[in-house]
Design a protein that fits this description.
It holds the Pfam family MacB_PCD. InterPro entries: ABC3_permease_C, Lipoprotein-release_system, LolCE_TM, MacB_PCD. Belongs to the ABC-4 integral membrane protein family. LolC/E subfamily. Keywords: Cell membrane, Lipoprotein, Membrane, Transmembrane, Transmembrane helix, Transport. The protein is α+β, with helices and mostly antiparallel strands and about 425 residues long. The protein folds into 2 domains: about 15-65 and about 280-430, no CATH class; about 80-265, no CATH class. The protein is built from 17 helices and 12 strands. The strands form 2 sheets. A 6-stranded mixed beta barrel has the order 4-5-10-7-9-8. Strands 2-3 form a two-stranded antiparallel sheet. Helix 2 (about 15-25) crosses helix 13, helix 11 runs parallel beside helix 16 (about 395-420) and helix 13 (about 330-360) packs antiparallel against helix 16. The two termini are about 30 Å apart.
Length: about 425
C-alpha cells in the first residue's frame, strides 16, 4: 500500500462522521451534549446582540444625519460684523438676492435662499414656549425635503403666505392646531414715547409639520420672508443665505468656490461644523461597543474549550483505539477541530439570523414591549429621534460573523491539538 493510499485527505467523510457521533453522544456515553448546547446558545446570543447593537447605532447615526440634511442648510453664509454710521455692529446682508444668485451658480449647488432668523416667545391657549422663527419665502420652504414631505403633517403648505408653519412639537405643547392663532413676542422691542415695548403679533397656523426629530419639531416656526423682515425690523436685508449642495458629505471641497462667490465679508458655516463632533462621537462609540461586545462572544465561545477538554478526557479510550487502527495525529486533531467548529458555525449562523430579524422588526418589538409594560422605552427628548432607528449593513453583519467564526476556530485548535498528541499507550493502559 502506498503512502498516498494510507493517508486519507484532510477532512474526509469518516472524520466528519466521527465528529458528528461525538457531538450527538449523550453525557452518560461520554458526550458533551449539554455543554455543547450552552456554548451554541451563548455564541448565538452574543452574535445576535452584537448585530442588533451595531444596526441600532449605525441607524441612529444615519437617521440623525438625514434629519440634519433634510431640515437644515448644508452651508450657511453670514456676513462678518461691520460698524455702521451709528457705531452699531451690523451683520445684515443687504444684497441677499444677488448673493443667493451667485451662490446658486456655483457648480454642485442645488439651491440658495436668503433667510431671517430670530428667537421669540410664542403663546396660545394660556401656554407659552420659546421657539426659533425662520423667515423664508414659500418656494424656498417647499425646497426643504423634510418640511415639504414630513413624516406627519397638517394643513397645506400652499397657504404659507397667509400664516405661519409650526413644528408638531410646538403644536402639541401649546395645544394649537390648523386655523388657531399663535402670538409671537419678540424681546427686541419697539421704541415708543413710553419706552421700549416688546413686539407682539398674532399669526394664524396654516401648516404643521413633523420631521421626526424632537429638537426641530419642538422649537421651529417658519414665517413668510417679508413678514419676518417687518416683525424683526430687518427690512434692509437678510440674516443669512442657506445653501443646499448635491453631495453634503463632500461639502468641504466646495468651500473655496462658495467663498469666492460670496465675497470678502462672507463667513461660511457647514453642517459638519455644527454637528460633526457629535457624529464623530457616535462613530467612536460604535467602534468601542463592537470591541466590548466582542468580548461577550469570546466568553461564550470559551465554553467550546470546556466542552472539548471534557470530550477529549471522556474519549481517551476511543482516541487510543483510533490511533492503533492507523489514524494519524492530523486526523485526530481534525475530528475534534470539527467538533468545536461545528458548535461555533451553527451558533454564528443562528445568531446572524436572530440578530437580523430582531434588528429588522425592532420597531414592532418596541411597540409590543411598550404595550405590555405600559411605559416608553425611547425618550425623544434625550435621543432627539422619535423612534428607535435600525439599519442593517452587510459590512457589519459580515464583520460580526467573521469575528465569531474566527474566535470559534482559534480557540478550538488547542484542545484538538492536545487530543492529537495523546499517547495511545497511555490512553489504553487502564482499559
Amino acid at each position: 500500500m502506498t503512502a498516498a493510499a494510507s493517508s486519507p485527505p484532510p477532512f474526509s467523510a469518516f472524520e466528519w462522521l466521527i465528529a458528528w457521533r461525538y457531538l450527538r453522544a449523550r453525557r452518560k456515553d461520554g458526550g458533551i451534549s449539554v455543554i455543547a448546547w450552552y456554548a451554541l446558545i451563548g455564541v448565538m446570543l452574543g452574535v445576535a446582540t452584537l448585530i442588533v447593537v451595531q444596526a441600532v447605532m449605525y441607524g441612529f447615526r444615519e437617521e440623525f444625519t438625514e434629519r440634519i440634511l433634510g431640515a437644515n442648510a448644508h452651508v450657511t453664509v453670514y456676513y462678518s460684523p461691520e460698524i455702521d454710521a451709528n457705531g452699531v455692529q451690523d451683520r445684515l446682508i443687504p444684497d441677499y438676492d444677488d448673493l443667493a444668485k451667485r451662490l446658486a451658480a456655483v457648480p454642485g449647488v442645488t439651491h440658495a435662499a436668503p433667510q431671517i432668523r430670530g428667537q421669540v416667545m410664542v403663546s396660545a391657549n394660556g401656554r407659552a414656549s420659546g421657539v426659533e422663527v425662520i423667515g423664508i419665502r414659500p418656494d424656498d420652504l417647499a425646497s426643504i425635503p423634510l418640511v415639504a414631505r414630513p413624516e406627519t403633517s397638517g394643513g397645506s403648505l400652499a397657504d404659507f403666505e397667509q400664516g405661519i408653519a409650526i413644528g408638531a412639537g410646538v403644536s402639541r405643547d401649546l395645544g394649537i392646531g390648523i386655523g388657531g392663532t399663535l402670538t409671537l413676542i419678540s424681546p427686541e422691542g419697539m421704541d415708543t414715547p413710553f419706552g421700549t415695548q416688546p413686539r407682539v403679533s398674532d399669526y394664524p397656523v396654516v401648516y404643521i409639520f413633523g420631521v421626526g426629530r424632537y429638537d426641530i419639531d419642538k422649537t421651529r416656526v417658519y414665517m413668510p420672508f417679508t413678514e419676518a423682515q417687518s416683525f424683526f425690523d430687518r427690512e434692509a436685508g437678510a440674516d443669512e443665505v442657506e445653501v443646499m449642495v448635491t453631495d453634503p458629505n463632500r461639502v468641504e471641497d466646495m468651500l473655496p468656490a462658495l467663498a469666492a462667490a460670496a465675497g470678502p465679508r462672507a463667513v461660511l458655516w457647514t453642517w459638519k461644523d455644527a454637528s460633526g463632533a457629535f457624529l464623530s462621537a457616535l462613530d467612536t462609540e460604535r467602534r468601542v461597543m463592537f470591541i466590548i461586545l466582542s468580548l461577550v462572544v469570546l466568553i461564550a465561545a470559551m465554553n467550546i474549550i470546556s466542552g472539548l477538554v471534557m470530550l477529549v478526557k471522556n474519549k481517551g479510550r476511543d482516541i487510543g483505539i483510533l490511533r492503533t487502527m492507523g489514524l494519524t495525529q492530523g486526523s485526530i486533531m481534525r475530528v475534534f477541530f470539527i467538533c468545536g467548529s461545528l458548535i461555533g458555525v451553527v451558533g454564528t449562523v443562528l445568531g446572524v439570523v436572530l440578530g437580523c430579524l430582531f434588528a429588522y422588526y425592532i420597531k414592532d418589538i418596541q411597540m409590543l414591549i411598550e404595550s405590555v409594560l405600559g411605559a416608553s422605552l425611547w425618550n425623544p427628548e434625550i435621543r432627539y429621534l422619535t423612534e428607535i432607528p435600525s439599519r442593517l449593513r452587510w459590512q457589519d453583519v459580515s464583520a460580526v460573523a467573521g469575528m465569531a467564526l474566527l474566535l470559534s476556530f482559534v480557540i478550538t485548535i488547542l484542545p484538538a491539538r492536545n487530543a492529537a498528541r495523546m499517547n495511545p499507550v497511555e490512553a489504553l493502559r487502564y482499559e
